[in-house]
Known about the structure:
Layout: E1 8-11, H1 14-25, E2 30-32, E3 39-43, H2 47-57, E4 66-68, H3 72-76, H4 83-92, E5 97-102, H5 111-114, E6 119-123, H6 128-137, E7 141-142, H7 157-164, E8 170-173, E9 184-188, E10 194-198, E11 233-234, E12 244-248, E13 256-257, H8 264-280, E14 285-288, H9 297-308
Helix pairs in contact: 1-6
Magnesium ion binds at residues 144-145, 153, 221.
Amino acid sequence: xxxxxxxxxxxxxxxxxxxxxxxxxxxxxxxxxxxxxxxxxxxxxxxxxxxxxxxxxxxxxxxxxxxxxxxxxxxxxxxxxxxxxxxxxxxxxxxxxxxxxxxxxxxxxxxxxxxxxxxxxxxxxxxxxxxxxxxxxxxxxxxxxxxxxxxxxxxxxxxxxxxxxxxxxxxxxxxxxxxxxxxxxxxxxxxxxxxxxxxxxxxxxxxxxxxxxxxxxxxxxxxxxxxxxxxxxxxxxxxxxxxxxxxxxxxxxxxxxxxxxxxxxxxxxxxxxxxxxxxxxxxxxxxxxxxxxxxxxxxxxxxxxxxxxxx
Length: 311
Ligand code: TXA
Ligand code: MG
């Protein structure tokens, strides 16, 4: 493909992981499987390496990155953990929860990782391949979703290559992601209060969304238009028309079903695969069946609304 790199596809076994760790150590870019979506990783302590992430994705520089570490001990070297933060980390790590915490002065992170904010977003992923890589690399890894900025998030190595082939050094093929939606992001404020900056696979009772403030984009993943398949998307559709690629839910005929049995976890794990199929099909428009707004359905509908919002 076009681009200045020849992108290697690496296996998820020891040899592939050793190669990936070597590329990362020397400041390169490797797309990695996680339990949520594939991430585009670079060492988080190196300005030049982190700058390459923004360049490969075409990501605006004001949009900060999530730092992935192998343990809560490693996370404590990067951020101040209040009692509330400790509690959340112990309950949900490793897993699809990202905590936004006050950044430590001596964190040693590249400035571009946090886009100049005095907070840092951190998570300990659960995917075994990603865990093995973090152990092999022994570095905090900055990793946004491994897609061109604004496009559909990747849940397979092929989805990564669809927009980043030739723009990154390597992708580790670790199969399909199991949760299939980006991590829940929770900000732990100095006063101990919590705000949900992005809904995701983990739901915390009684934590409300952050108010949208026009003057500061806190989590630009929350910008109205995102995850865009490049075609008009119509939501809550019972009866689609002929030139629409129909994404179904439950017992309806469709071009791609989120879950034939109406299971929301399965729907979450298949959402981006269906959107990728819809984007690649010859049909000029996309229609999506209603998805119940309960449980992880709230995060699915959040992503669908953004996919349906014109850029
Ligand atoms: O599941 C995930 O979170 C995946 C995998 C790879 O870990 N990553 C991911 O990264 O979704 P990305 O870059 O697509 O989304 C990160 C979100 C963005 O909305 C960004 O604005 C927000 O996290 N974010 C990062 N640092 C932040 C900070 N210090 N304060 C507020 N929001 C922050
Ligand atoms: Mg993203």
